[in-house]
Amino acid sequence: MSLGFSECLDSTAAVAGRRDLVERDAALTALRGSLTDAVGGKGRLVVVEGPLGSGKSRLVHEFLETLEPGAARVLRATASLREEALPFGVLTQLSHGLAIPPARREPFRSLLAAAVEHALLHGGTAPGAQDAADPRIAEAFQKLTVELAHLAENTPLVICVDNAHYVDAPSLHFLAGVVAWLYSTRILVLVTDDPTMRRPRSPLLGGLAPSPHVRRVPLAPLSRTAVHSLATRLLGPRTATPRLTAELYAVSGGNPLAVRALITDQQAGGTGHPEGYGQALLDLVAHARPPIPAVVRSLAVLGGAPEPADVAPLAGQDIKTTRWALRALADAGMLRADARVPSAHAGPPGTGVMVPAAGTAAPARAERYAFRHPAGAAAVLDDLPAADRTALHHAAAELLRENGASALTVARQLTSAGDAGIDDGIDVLLAASQEALAAGDVGTALGCLGLARRTRTDGITAARVRTRLSRLERQSKPQAAVRHLRPQLDDFHAGRLDRRGVSDLVLGLTDTGALHDLTALLGVLRTRYRQDTGPGPGTEDIRFLTSWAAMAYPLHTGLRRLAHSVAAATPAAVPCHDPWLPSAVALSDDYVDGRDDRLVQRAELLLSTYHLDHDSLWNVESGVLALRGLCHAGKLDEVVAWCEKLEAETAAHHAVASQARFLAVRVEAYLRRGDLTHARDLAAHALSLVPPQGWGVGLAGVLACAVLAATRSGDLAAAEKYVALPLPEHALHSRHGAAYLHARGHYRLATHHPQAALADFLACGRFAETWGRPGADVVPWRLGAAEAWLAQNDQEQAKRLVREQLARLPPGPSPERGQSLRTLAAVSRVTRRPQLLTEAVDMLMESGDEYQLTRALIDLGVAFRDAGDQRNARRVAHRAWHLAQQTGTEHLCREAALDPAGSETAPAAEDAGEHPDGVSSLTRQERKIAALASKGYTNREIAAKLYITASTVEQHLTRVFRKVNVKRRQDLPYLL
Q1: Residue of 178, 257, 167 lying closest to 219 (CA atoms)
Q2: Cβ-count burial 835-868 (b if 16+ within 10 Å, e if not)
Q3: 84 DSSP assignment
Q4: What Å distances lie between residue 692 and 459, 473, 479, 552, 740, CA to CA?
Q5: C-alpha angle 404-409-414 in degrees, rounded to nearest 5
Q6: Phi, psi at residue 273, to the nearest 5°?
Q7: What pLDDT does 358 receive?
Q8: Segment 296-305, tens digit of pLDDT
Q9: Which of 593, 683, 669, 654 lies closest to 624 in space, CA to CA?
Q10: Nearest to 739, CA basis, from 591, 855, 889, 590
């Protein structure tokens, strides 16, 4: 009988009609050829084999769907893991197939029923029983085979068994008997098989010898090209970009089930890989033999690519079984080999055949495997009940600790479990936090300490945990760390704080302005010190701590007296547990004592070996003080470079509070440069990193910079918002108070409230007088007060203050003297003002403070104008406008009624006759040098920038002055 096979199985239609079946052409061709042989009376056994999820069932289904109705009889059965122990299960499914004619259906079922009954009566269904060895069962199987042969005489018969690796033992014996008859029948036995899931000695497939009537059709995971083709078909070429399909392949490993799940995610608008990969992995594991789910869960808990020897005990399996499970999933493409050597790989695209690597005898396999994407581990763990997941993490923690793993590795299991439920769990978490800090991982350290804090323990251990947690939160989220101060105070009074805990608590109380608690604590320390007749627990650093508190609040008489009494009773040099603490105290002492040379020397020495140390709060304090010392000494470029470096490091470690502290120092440096744009923007950024409540009394310092930058820029609305922010109690009594009052005074002066401004400036003066130390005069409050008196038309008071300021300055030119001369000019005779202001401009040119230079130039232009020297007035006014545009202070020129148009054109017109070709005659090098000189660079700085000598710069400038007919570099800008 002719089946018209070429008509019933159109390969082109079959492949084109199934858009999601790719790279399976060779396999379909093999199935069609085997069916053709069977139709011709040459029965075949075809084994479609491949790893989990490789598309075996899908391939067979698509093949059978191409058969026309009536072209062949098809008996189908699907084996499953849960029915593997059910005797005759698959054979029963076959006997109920509708393809058996009614006339033969009852005899077939009767024979099967007799075999089952005999097996039940004689124990043939017990596990491992050799059913085929029983003569009665063997006879029944032979008669059933004959029935099938008769059934295929008129119409070819296709016996299809899916998942042959899960077929029960009696059914396997029966199918093996059928295969022995195939050579002379019109029967095609088509089975799917996963060799890794198969019984060691399968009666059907174990040790199957090659023969003409047996054909294997191996299926490999899809190649990269096949994944791209499938994605293009289902998503369209615009969506299926090479980048997307490369990601799909990398995550799925070419596993068809995973690839389709990922594409489905993409079609639904998802990210394309996490959810699909995880769900496909769960589906495969659900249909795998029991060791595989246990091994996969253990792999997910351990993370990374652990040794099989570590996975095995956690999974409750031996190493051999664990390796088998890992390799099975790796062969399916669901796991990534950590260090795979050349082994078998997919054949040419479109074939779906596995080919050994060239030049390799036996494929070697990697020992370690990992998930292809973190979503795989997440999906496996999320699929577990919470109690089971916690127990597994605890078991992993115990196992890792027994194997000598690091505390950080063990702690990751405890934090994942959310419970430190192992012996010495808190000690492990504390040690892990230290390891994390050493690696700069502040987030992990916080997680370990947070879990330790939630775990019940004794008072001393709880105090240790609280101290370390507070230390880290002070660096990352200081607004939350405040909650620890009250419990830490209780720990201190109960004697539970160690030496570092006490120093941290003193710093915390100092920063938050809790002066009552701070004074009481230091008093208790002094009492303990006297009782112990020397250093004891918690009192070793009393000299440093009392000095720090007194310098932090210079107006607090009680703290100053306490520091003096402690200094008199303790040795000056004592060992300290934290090297940053004495450094911070020494820098602060130099700063307030006005020992500028020593301050700079100490700051440079500290910075030469400075590095971030998250385990010490005094680390950032000393770093900030060192940088502020250099800033005070005018080393602004060095300060900016250091701050940028430290800001990047702290940002990388998520220590935002430390980052904001260094950022605030950079703001101060930009303010001293007169770079108001950067200062204003960075001050806003610092306040966005840490909210106002997280700064403590230090808020006064950063607000001082923000208010001053906004005021000087003319942005009075922004300055008003900053001034409106409430300050912590006692902030104005801290060492930041003077800077804040000085900045607010300038804001009030700019908003035409001279009396209120004068009150702020005079408060700065009282601050300095009460402090009584040379370095206390950290802001030029007398100049601000003089401007406030001038705004009230009281020149005598203004002149008095300016002269006091000049008398306090060391001899010689300096930025402070330049500012004082500018203010003095305002209270001097009109004829004397140009001379004073010219001196001020010369001094401020060297300082690099472009804001103060702009103000001096504006005043000089006005002075020349008032003196009737219009030519110099225009020339200087042009310079002032040019610099004001650079610094963002054009409003100062407008307030002084300087005309930018006239100032730009008039000098050029007037001087045109004097040197019409002067500027055009400059060489390229002369123009470069003149441009830098006009911006205030010194000869040495120009030489360094252009890689020439200072004498060469001087020679070029001499020629420039001669060509353009000027005598000083200050006259260059309007010409260039």
Answers
A1: 257
A2: ebbbbbbebbbebbbbbbbbbbbbbbbbbbbeee
A3: T
A4: 33, 16, 9, 19, 15
A5: 110
A6: -125, -40
A7: 37
A8: 999 999 988 8
A9: 669
A10: 591
Tokens of residue 826, six digits = 């305002």
Q: How confident is the model at residue 293 (pLDDT cuts 50, 70, 90)?
A: very high
Distance between CA atoms of residues 199 and 315, nearest Å: 21
692 by DSSP, 3-state: which? Answer: helix
CB 296 within 8 A of CB 333: no
Nearest of 20, 34, 15, 333 to residue 182 by alpha carbon: 34
Q: Which contacts (CB < 8 Å, 24+ apart) does range 182-185 have? A: 182/43, 182/44, 182/45, 182/213, 183/42, 183/43, 183/212, 183/213, 184/41, 184/43, 185/38, 185/41, 185/43, 185/148, 185/149, 185/152, 185/157
Closest CA to 851 of 822, 888, 896, 824: 888
DSSP string over 25-77: HHHHHHHHHHHHHHHTT--EEEEEE-STTSSHHHHHHHHHHTSPTTSSEEEEE
Q: How far is residue 910's CA from residue 961's CA, in Å, rounded to a whole number?
A: 17
Helical H segments across 542-698, by residue range? 542-552, 557-569, 580-593, 596-608, 617-632, 636-652, 656-673, 676-689
Which pLDDT tens digit goes with each residue over 853-892? 888 998 998 898 888 888 888 888 888 888 888 777 878 7
Cβ neighbours of residue 847 under 8 Å, at least 6 residues apart? Answer: 634, 814, 815, 818, 853
Residue 77 pairs with which residues in a beta bridge? 161
**In terms of Cα–Cα distance, which of 235, 227, 231 is closest to 255?**
227
Cα distance between residue 170 and residue 141, in whole Å: 10
Residues 6+ apart with CB under 8 A from 745: 757, 758, 759, 760, 761, 764, 781, 784, 785, 788
> Residues 927-940: pLDDT tens digits?
888 888 876 678 88
Question: Using alpha carbons only, how large is the chain's radius of gyration in Å?
Answer: 43
Q: List the structure tokens of 218.
A: 């191996």
d(CA 350, CA 347): 8
Query: How far apart, in whole angstroms, are the C-alpha atoms of residue 6 and residue 686?
Result: 78
Distance of alpha carbon 159 from alpha carbon 43, whole angstroms: 11
What does the CA dihedral 868, 871, 876, 879 come to, rounded to 10 degrees? 150
Distance CA 691, CA 513 (A): 17
* DSSP code at position 210: P
